[in-house]
Amino acid sequence: MRERIQQLDIEGRQGHDAIFEASYLDDIPAALTEWKAARVLLVVSTSLDTKTSVIRDLEKSLSNYQVYKKVGVGSHSPYSDIIDIAHRVQDHDIQAVVSIGSGSYSDACKIAVMLSATLPSGFGEDEMEALVDQKRGLAGPDTVKAPVTKLICVPTSLSAGEWNSYASGTNATGKKQHYMHPEGAPSLILMDPTVARTTPSHLWLASGMRAVDHFVESLCRPECHEEAATHIKKGLPLLVRGLKEYHEGQEDGNEDELLKGIAESQRGSRDALMPFIKWKIPMGASHAIGHQLGSVAGVQHGVTSCILLTPTLRFTLDKTKTAQEAVLQIFNEVLGCHEAEAADAVHRFVKLLGLPSRLSEVGVRQEQLHKIAELTLTDALAHNKALPDKEGILEILNMAK
């Protein structure tokens, strides 16, 4: 059922809305009309632009606007793409950016609209890095200005970064850095299942595991209070069920079940980030290691969670036993299985979805592990004391081999 809501019920999100079961062809022109935005930059997935009619149909619906277009953003939002988008915003006095793609697209666009308001025209990577606290891997909020350019995100994955005022980009040395401003969330998020339907199933499901990771790591944090835990225990089964329905619909050729699974998963992905955004509960080692596993070894964003969540749960079991018991119960009930540990239940789910579960399956080499561990210790999550030491990080990585 179509529903328009404020993205999150927190300070700073007034005027930042989201529409579930949206129609991008109707809702994008309606928003541009409301904002009186005449100059528009589309930042769109290469596959959507070349292999489907999604972007062509949108361009037809925007024939009365001055439309510019960038096709393609690299995995993990390279600085070069962020700079390119920001320069186009500055050079053409863009009033609204429309991102249609995965989390790499939404992150690149979020950072670009922040930087186009923060840095002078023609800025480069050095100016970007000068904004970053290198110990924390974080720029903002004091060093970053609020965007003045509107941003619409039409996500094609479940990594759910579009709900966050933070965004990540990868610098030329291969380190993932984070940028944020309280007003850095998109102006409008459109959850359109028909657009998401075009995403290859393995990418959709992997991004769904990223959202599962958000829920599970939040529940396992000592900061997770009763209100947040209740939210997670309500939302996680819906997300897992939605991914299961999507997978079964795909396997059986049942389009209605598949679209229902997409819509349920999209709502679940938003709920998965609430503990972090609303209650400031940080993620843990799976996320932090995953940030650098992506930037160093090029592992796709969602796949890092498929590989790292299971060994992270094994590594932290002694400290998170109660939370893991709740995770185990949820997975056993939804999947109808009888695993003894949460790590085994998560691993079973990853395999059920046909996703990789080992570093060896995605080409990560032994000699890369030390660099991944070292960079993890400078990740934005490290300052929350959410991580083990280097030896602990290497132990998790070695369990994942």
Structure overview:
By secondary structure, the protein is an alpha/beta fold. The chain has 2 domains: 3-193, 3-Layer(aba) Sandwich (Rossmann fold); 200-400, Dehydroquinate synthase-like, alpha domain (Up-down Bundle), CATH 1.20.1090.10. The protein contains 16 helices and 11 strands. It has helices at residues 24-35, 46-51, 54-61, 79-91, 103-118, 125-130, 193-196, 201-219, 226-252, 255-279, 285-297, 301-315, 321-335, 342-352, 369-376, 390-399; strands spanning 3-6, 17-20, 39-44, 66-71, 96-101, 132-133, 138-139, 150-155, 166-170, 176-180, 188-191. Strands 1-2-11-8-5-3-4 form a 7-stranded mixed sheet, sandwiched between helices. A 4-stranded mixed sheet has the order 6-7-10-9. A hairpin with a 5-residue loop joins strand 9 (166-170) and strand 10. Helix 8 runs parallel beside helix 10 and helix 9 packs parallel to helix 13 (321-335). The radius of gyration is 20 Å and the shape is globular. The mean pLDDT is 95.
List the helices and strands and how they pair.
Blueprint: E1 3-6, E2 17-20, H1 24-35, E3 39-44, H2 46-51, H3 54-61, E4 66-71, H4 79-91, E5 96-101, H5 103-118, H6 125-130, E6 132-133, E7 138-139, E8 150-155, E9 166-170, E10 176-180, E11 188-191, H7 193-196, H8 201-219, H9 226-252, H10 255-279, H11 285-297, H12 301-315, H13 321-335, H14 342-352, H15 369-376, H16 390-399
Parallel strand pairs: 2-11, 3-4, 3-5, 5-8, 7-10, 8-11
Antiparallel strand pairs: 1-2, 6-7, 9-10
Helix pairs in contact: 4-5, 8-9, 8-10, 8-12, 9-10, 9-13, 11-12, 11-15, 12-14, 12-16, 13-14, 15-16
